[in-house]
Amino acid sequence: MNDKSTENESALVLFSGGQDSATCLAWALERFARVETIGFDYGQRHGIELECRADIIDGLKKIRPEWARRLGEQHTLDIPTLAEISDTALTREVAIEMGEGGLPNTFVPGRNLLFLTFAAALAYRRGIANIVGGMCETDFSGYPDCRDDTIKALNTALNLGMDKKFELHTPLMWLDKAQTWKLAEQLGGRALVDLIVEKSHTCYLGERGARHAWGFGCGECPACRLRAKGWEAYAAS
Length: 237
Prior knowledge:
This protein is of the alpha/beta class and about 240 residues long. About 50% of the residues lie in helices and about 15% in strands. It has one domain: Rossmann fold, CATH 3.40.50.
């Protein structure tokens, strides 16, 4: 597991069950010989996203036989402490609105920092050098832990703190949502786009009742509106 060539050929993908992470998983499967995933149960209101992962994995295996061969272990970590110390609309039954400092109250402080740190710790044990996340600074809600500067700084800190040479990949960093849909099409054709529409979950409220052109969701929360806007632009292109 600790052979350097094996480390460089393998990747660990932060896989929540959403549109972005599903696209990132396909991206990694195109580039690495062995791909494992990690998801986090932190008491999120939209915990149903975690249940969507199995269907997405099954769908990916059917789209490309080589993807099925490259898929490795799937990991889930429970970190309820994050919800316990958070007072946000993603971890509490409160209305989604703008909070202090111009950030929406869906911002969970430290979430991506913790996710990537836990991912690096697991990657260290698993002999994996590449870590892939769906952070994006183009179409986002202003979350500071999604910024490119943040990810680069954390990459440096992780490498120093663990004496490893991890590489944090963020293939969506400079893509808007329409371009993310287009990337999915380029990676897996219409089959991947359809899989993401039908099986991934984005809605902050965990709503799976209403089926829209872009997938399931309440249609009103910021995540749904962003996904819908991107779909409309992608469909019109």
